Amino acid sequence: MGTVFSFVVRDPSPAVDEALREAVARLHAIDARFSPYRADSEVSRIVHGEASLTNASAELAEVLDRCAEIEKLTEGWFSAYPEGRLDPSGWVKGWAVEQACALLCEAGSTEHCVNGGGDVQSVGGPWRIGVADPFRPGSLAAVLAGRDLVVATSGTGERGAHILDPRTGESATGLLSLTLVTSGPARLARTDACATAAFAMGPEAGLAWVERQPDLEALAILPDPAAPKRATSEYLRFSV
Prior knowledge:
Distance between the termini: 32 Å
Radius of gyration: 18 Å
Strand order of the largest sheet: 1-2-3-6-7-8-9
Helix content: 25-40%
Largest sheet: 7 strands, antiparallel
Strand content: 15-25%
């Protein structure tokens, strides 16, 4: 998927060790089906006309249904077709993390954290999760503390200006970083997709949209280093 995944497990056991191996295999299987970087993935074969959506796998069909739900929720600011071509990565990465967490939970782990390219689903806790500072590589802009935290960040720090404004087709540049925070199981895919959409909306519209979501809090970092970090008041409950 063009990024790095990592695991922290506080309650290892033989069953959990086996689940870790299964989780890694599951991540590779998801990558093999959905990666836009692999010529042989199902997504790439559809993009290149070598396969058809009408014969899509049940797993891809389910992912596209979830993407359609987020597209409706965000009034079109999120899409499984950025630049007009199929690429559901904005949902799949968070969903892959959820899948890995589920395998660990099924094996009996109640204290673990899975990080997929800076997007984090944690179980148990408390955990301390850092938010990268785009102005100072290797440094943190904030640290979140809590139990069962779900943290998704969209920004330019890792991949440059890769998030598009679907209304203009141009790169969204109003923000450097937008982090959304919530809690609870199996929430990262939705939170990550919402972060992508809100980032594309820009600082004013994006934060206003997040304020209207009852289960999300946000921290936005603006391009001007002299400008203050912007956060919803609720978000401050999570920060230390």
